[in-house]
Amino acid sequence: MTLDKLKIGLFNECFPPIQDGVSQVVENYARLMHEGGHDVTVATAKVPSFDYPNPYKVKNILSIPIPVRRPYRWGLPTWMVPWQPIYSFQSDIIHAHSPFTAARIALKLRKKYGIPVVTTFHSKFKDDFRASVPSDTIVNYMVKNIMQVFEAADEVWVGAPGVIDVMREYGYKGKVEVVPHAIDFDLSGVDVPLLKAQAKAELGVPVAVPCLLFVGQIIHAKNVLYTLEALHLLHQKGIPFKMFYVGKGNASAELMHAIKRYGMQDCVEWIGQLSDRATLQKYYAAADLFLFPSLYDTLGLVVREAAAHHTPSILLADSTAAKGINHAVEGFIAPQTTPADFAQTLQNCLSQPSLIKAVGQTAAHSLGLTWNQVIPEVIDRYKSLIIRKQR
Questions:
Q1: Strands 93-96, 7-11: parallel, antiparallel or unpaired by DSSP?
Q2: For residue 206, cis peptide bond before it (omega within 30 degrees of 0)
Q3: What are phi and psi of 48, to 5 degrees?
Q4: What kind of architecture, by CATH, is found in domain 192-367?
Q5: Which residue among 54, 229, 257, 307 has the highest number of C-beta atoms inside a 10 angstrom radius?
């Protein structure tokens, strides 16, 4: 084996065309590592009938659909791992991005071939479990079960220091490495004010009308209806704005119904999921403010993607996604109380367009780390772990 060209396995149940923050992380890892000359294989629960066009290998983890969380899929139970085709996969290192079947397979391959396994903690799994399981006892058991995966890994990574607090809350006591997450939008050398003006014009938003944006899963855990209630309060005051919701999820129908009920079809649009990154970029660029009152997210890559386009975010105080963001410096912080308070924070921001512009510029500088900057560190860490494992 030569460390100049690694054979890398990236394991996660979710991968494009299913779009979320974790799938974007895995996709960027795979793309840039492949471009760097490494032999990359993504192991994922493939979407049936989708033709994966990737230049690297994408192998299937046998799975079934999750009816309440379409289009997500659930890997088959651990006892069936020996029958999984991926069980014959050999590599120098495996990086698991979920603690479910994908990670369980990775740990079995470690035992089979003696290779190191890295895991990254991405999500507030307890919130997901509580949304579908009525028993706290069962939820706590499920959390304990997935934390055993992290306990068993050779290294555990998080994308930001604030995520460590969530892991400790879940009972993890081991060592954690902070390896930052980044974005694939590189706007160095781009005239961002011109880009923003062009994007606003293409989306049909008048220059004088503030453009607001949310990108992510349309689910209750992301507080999308909370945001809409706040916007309704501004609408009742006659404050002009144009809001775009980009994404899809099990609360999409409820969101559409609420938009119609409030009579806000002219100023609020649900766009649905955008798989084309160039089209998505238009919305990021056109937006003046990104609304992200999520208590679910551990990091919020979308906040950083918006920041790269000089679009600052409004987040909730004490949320994990708001860790490291100072009010009126890299973003804006609203109290974690009622939609009325969020609406007031939004109104205060909209009354100070020059402040929004200044905060957007600071956010672009401090939050706009790109994957091209991060992946070399990831590869160095892989190599170090492989050497330690060999010794």
A1: parallel
A2: no
A3: -55, 140
A4: 3-Layer(aba) Sandwich (3.40)
A5: 307
